[in-house]
Design a protein that fits this description.
19 helices, mainly alpha, 495 residues
């Protein structure tokens, strides 16, 4: 029951913060930090206790037995890294929102409701329960963006929710189809939503051909899959920093996790038949996201489209349907989770709070006026583009090696082009913000300097950047947990 505490603590945190008086914003931030840290601590305990392979910490209880619905939770090597990244981003989101005063009690109530829904998705081993938590995670996002967001926040919040519900509708229809069509080894209908039972049964091959794209696309919409990706940059830009961190670092992973845990696991033959098309879309994600990021002038939009591009590597790793590539996909979910969250924190809070702008054409020579912050961003940018020594390099290497062995050469070449474009837009945007001279300077402009990072900001940077560096140098810390679970999953695939 240890893992379940992440969900319980999150919803208790939402309740406690929501009941606190709005004027007590100083106490609220410490309470929020305590609950976020507790969730991270539970995730760390789960990591230490997990030996690899089978599901751990299983909790099975009846919920609606007449419909084959149970309250079943647990975790394995696939969900474990996502529990960790959720905890890390949750803690750092509080740290980078340390100065929030406006309706802080309500903000953190919605904040922890979202986090609780996310934990619930990663721990659910029942399709209906997973869908419930998936929907729970949608509602707080709307209020967090619509109330505390920036420019065009109402539009961004509504767009995100509509895309989310659209994807959910496809997922629900696919789940119902699986419920009615899944059979056990003797051919008897299972009539259950239990993932544990469904993965031991089988959906007829002809049915998998149309159920797989329905479920995969439904989940992939939330992962930022082209051409349904536009909610992501729009939502990221309008959202407050902590929510941008959650959207990029965690919420986009809900979709990718669903693609892997539900679509691929339950529909292996459908996955094999559609793998080449998934790979094509993944490459479009990678290249298109990088090209659009290169043309953006809003710093947040750059990071938003960068997230779309990086999620393409997750989809590509899933499309390989082999151990190496899928290990890379799970690693990429963790890696982009911490690095993407860090970049949004730096742009949305650290830089914006000092310069009062995110427009690159209004920024110049920040290396002279905020040297410490500038170098932190440069290192984070290099980590994002896959510098050796950071987690992004290891995860993308796994994906490319896996793709080389199972997909066509032009797919690998397209992914390689995406990496080159990532190098390009990262270096160009770093130059524009930190090293470019201003075309026209105002009197005294050169003397303007900005304050250094606050202690909460420094701690948040250390946690996220340190996590990316740790996994980059010691990838076995996660791969030794991930690979055994993926091996068991791949054993179900037809030869």
């Amino acid at each position: 029951m240890t893992a379940l505490l992440t969900i319980i603590l999150s919803f208790i945190g939402a309740l406690v913060c929501g009941l606190m008086p709005s004027s007590a914003h100083r106490r609220i931030r410490w309470v929020a930090l305590a609950f976020a840290a507790a969730g991270l601590g539970v995730s760390a305990v789960c990591y230490v206790n997990y030996s690899g392979g089978e599901f751990a910490d299983l909790l099975e209880a009846e919920w609606i037995p007449s419909l084959g619905i149970g309250f079943t939770t647990g975790y394995d090597g696939i969900s474990l890294p996502l529990l960790l990244v959720t905890g890390l981003v949750a803690v750092c989101g509080v740290l980078f929102s340390w100065t929030l005063e406006s309706r802080a009690n309500q903000f953190y109530a919605f904040y922890f409701a979202l986090i609780g829904g996310v934990y619930g998705v990663f721990l659910s081993l029942d399709l209906f329960l997973l869908f419930v938590f998936y929907e729970i995670a949608v509602v707080p996002k709307y209020f967090l963006i619509a109330i505390w967001g920036g420019v065009r926040r109402q539009f961004a919040a509504m767009k995100l929710v509509l895309y989310s519900f659209g994807g959910s509708a496809l997922v629900l229809l696919g789940m119902i189809a699986v419920f009615f069509l899944a059979n056990d080894a003797s051919g008897e209908s299972l009539k259950t939503f239990s993932l544990l039972k469904l993965q031991e049964g089988q959906v007829p091959a002809e049915a998998q051909q149309w159920i797989f794209p329905m479920i995969f696309v439904g989940f992939a919409i939330m992962a930022g899959m082209w051409p349904f990706h536009t909610w992501a940059p729009t939502g990221h830009v309008a959202a407050p920093t902590a929510v941008s961190m959650l959207l990029a670092g965690v919420v986009m992973k809900l979709g990718a996790y669903g693609c892997l845990r539900v679509a691929v696991v339950l529909l292996p033959e459908g996955a094999q038949d559609w793998a080449s098309w998934v790979a094509v879309v993944a490459v479009i994600n990678i290249v298109y996201g990088a090209l659009v990021a290169l043309k953006q002038d809003d710093f947040k939009y750059v990071i938003g489209y960068s997230s779309v591009s990086h999620m393409g590597f997750v989809l590509l790793g899933i499309a390989t349907l082999n151990l190496t590539g899928m290990t890379g996909a799970v690693l990429q979910m963790f890696s982009h989770g911490v690095i993407g969250a860090l970049l949004f924190a730096l742009v949305g809070t650290v830089i914006y709070s000092r310069t009062k702008t995110r427009m690159l054409n209004e920024l110049h020579r920040l290396i002279d006026r905020m040297p410490g912050i500038a170098w932190v961003f440069i290192v984070a940018g290099l980590a994002s583009m896959g510098l050796p020594g950071f987690s992004g390099f290891v995860s993308e290497l796994y994906v490319l090696i896996g793709a080389w062995g199972s997909l066509s050469g032009w797919i690998v070449g397209g992914a390689g082009l995406g990496i080159l474009l990532t190098f390009g837009y990262t270096l160009v945007k770093i130059h524009e913000a930190f090293f470019r001279e201003r075309k026209t300077s105002a009197p005294g402009d050169a003397e303007i300097s900005y304050t250094a990072m606050t202690m909460p900001e420094k701690i948040g940077v250390a946690i996220l950047l340190g996590s990316a560096l740790l996994i980059g140098l010691c990838p076995w810390l996660l791969t030794d947990k991930i690979s055994p679970s993926l091996k068991l999953m791949l054993e179900r695939f037809p030869n």
